Amino acid sequence: MEANSTRTVSKLFFRLLPVQIVLSAIGSINGIVSSLFASNAVGVEAVSAIGLFSPFNMVITTLAGVFAVGSQMVCATYMGKNELENTQRVFSLDITISVVSSLVLSAFMVIFVALSGARFLTGDETVIRYFNQYMLGQTLGVLPLMLGQQCATFLSLENMMRRITVASIVYIIFNVIFNFVFLRVLKMEALGLAIAASIGMWIYFGIQAEHFLSGRSVYKLKLVKGMFKELKDVLKIGSHGALVNIYMIIRAGIVNGLMVKYAGSVGVSAFTAANTLLGFFWAIPAGMVSVSRMLMSVYTGEQDRESLKANMKTALYKCVPIMTLVAVFIIIFGDFFTRIYFNDPSSEVYRLTLWGYRILPFAMPLSVICNHFVCYGQTSDKEVLINVVSIFDGAISVSLFSFLLTPVIGLSGVYIANVINGLVSIVIILIYSVFKNKKFPTNLDELMVIPEDFGASKEDRIDVAITRMEEVINISEKITDFCLEKGVDTRRANLAGLFMEEMSGNVVDHGFTKDNKDHTIDIRVVYKDGKLVLRIKDDCIPFDPKSRSSIMDPDDITKNIGIRMVYKLAEKIEYQNILGLNVLTISV
Q1: Is the pTM of this model over 0.85?
Q2: How many of the other CB atoms lie within 10 Å of CB of 445?
């Protein structure tokens, strides 16, 4: 069954991945468009201004990520526990704190410009002027950026991937159009860059928000008493995921200072150009982690040990090779990517940018490993692992090695420091595993440091995968025999077998025939502490059997009789659709 679980999890993982990559790429695409128009329509100084603004942008996106990640993981855990009512409260909390935070951040940015704060960052008057323009324009987009990220998070939980994709594509198109109009036609310089992005973000948010405003969404905004009950959990869990970004803000300030000192504004422009375009490719591992975050949260709520391991196997055995190929692709086409920004191969800025494309990609496959273990640490409350990896990955490693290497080899020292950072993080993960297990890990359970009492043991459960009707016939006998062996009374044992045969057969009859895709039913029966729980999970179209449990056709009294019988005899039945999977839990 472990192989079947791995295939099912991997299949779900890659079904969810494309939209999460697009979602992760929104910010980087905005940066690419802005930097391209800046370098070609305004000047190198505008690119430097965008680079100096990056720590402020990271503050905004980090805070949005704290709310989105925290809310998503709390909601997903509730969904895994079938506590759906609590998800409504978390959604309302998330939207409320996002609006308030957006207004506070926008006000701070206006005050920063009014007090000429840019003079603490650079002495170049042209860069200061462009920076002030860019920051003022960006204030208009803080609110839709924050809310857009929250909407996308809850749309993902509802499996509304198509709406997210449409919103992302429309945003990209309008961002390019507005940049052309504001820069090429109206000559608005850096102000036009920022306003174009802000208007595009309002469109992106509006397309997503329509689903929630229409009343069709599972989640509805309700300002009710006790709404802030989960605030502590949301901030705690979300801040874990954002720790790296928080440290990266500090790192960005340190690295910017080193680049200005040892490479000048040319170095800042080269690093910004390389890092901005690479941001598009970084959306791939970011999307991988986003999918894992959702899945791991659900599996943790379900106490599903095998699926947790299957998700990590997908990351290590499939995602890492994929990112290695992506890195090789970037290195090979480094010269082409450099020419997008700078056309003169003899210039210093061209040479420095090219080295960025030749060195930085090595960090990508390493980041997949590091970030997936951090993601697992978030869902399993591994505070020490999260905090240590986050501070080293986010600030210490890159800052330290940049400090040591940049005075010697210039900007390339910053590039190399990012690669060393990935290696250091993996070593820390291994050290943590050795420390917790008192030995070097020899299997995935030990490497992940999964508690022995997590989930139902193999002795307390039976797992069965069904891919065709012929396999349904034998399911009742298997489950009944398992229950009897565990000491379950004959009545409950027979009902368990009958229930699973009826419900799985119904899925094969109706769900498997709705399209031309291959489908799988995962059945799990757990008997622990006197409780007998049946769970059936499938990847067919959404279907709540409760909607058929009370239907009786006068012309055919046998219609839906199996479903009606299950609902009549079962102690408790709960259905939900999680990330596109039908999950039915039955207590006998």
Answers
A1: no
A2: 16
Return the structure tokens found at 577: 């659709």
What whole-number distance in Å separates Cα of residue 540 and Cα of residue 184? 49
Per the CB < 8 A criterion, the answer to whether 497 and 479 are in contact is yes
DSSP class of residue 514?
Answer: S
The DSSP bridge partners found for residue 585 are 535, 574
With contact defined as beta carbons under 8 Å apart, do 247 and 394 qualify?
A: yes
Number of H helices, E strands in the chain: 23, 5
Sign of CA dihedral 486, 488, 491, 493: negative
Scanning the structure block, which residue is given the tokens 């027979």?
494
Burial state string for 31-40 with b = 16 or more CB within 10 A and e = fewer than 16:
bbbbbbbbbb
Helix (H) or strand (E) holding 583: strand 581-587
Distance CA 248, CA 133 (A): 24
CA distance 189 to 133: 8
Residue 542: how many other CB atoms lie within 10 Å:
12
* 167 close to 155: Cβ distance less than 8 angstroms: no
- Specify burial of residue 516 (Cβ count, 10 A radius: 0-12, 13-18, 19+): exposed
Chain centroid to CA 337: how far? 27
Q: For the chain, what are the domain ranges?
A: 2-444, 458-587
Instruction: Retrieve residue 129's tokens.
Output: 């002027």
Which residue in 203, 247, 266 sits closest to 30, CA to CA? 203
Residue 433 host element (H or E): helix 412-437
CB contact at 8 A, 361 and 327: yes
Sign of CA dihedral 24, 25, 26, 32: positive
Element (H, E) at 537: strand 531-538
Beta-strand relationship, 572-578 and 521-528: unpaired
Strand partners, 578: 581
- Nearest CA among 286, 303, 421 for reference residue 366: 421
CATH code for residues 458-587:
3.30.565.10
How long a stretch of residues is the chain?
588
- In tens digits, what is the pLDDT along the chain, a chain of 588 residues? 455 567 778 888 888 888 788 777 776 776 677 777 777 777 777 777 777 887 788 788 888 888 887 887 788 777 766 676 778 888 889 999 999 999 999 999 999 999 988 888 888 888 889 889 999 999 999 999 999 989 988 887 787 878 888 898 898 889 889 988 998 888 888 898 889 989 999 999 999 999 999 888 878 887 767 677 778 888 877 776 566 667 777 887 788 888 888 888 788 888 888 888 898 899 899 889 888 887 887 787 677 888 888 899 999 999 999 999 999 999 999 999 999 888 889 999 899 999 999 999 999 999 999 989 988 887 787 888 888 888 888 789 999 999 999 999 999 999 999 999 999 999 999 999 999 999 999 999 899 998 877 777 777 888 888 888 888 888 888 888 888 988 888 888 888 888 888 888 888 887 887 777 778 888 888 887 788 888 888 878 777 776 655 544 444 444 566 677 777 777 777 777 777 778 888 887
Q: What angle do CA 228, 234, 240 make, to 5 degrees?
A: 155
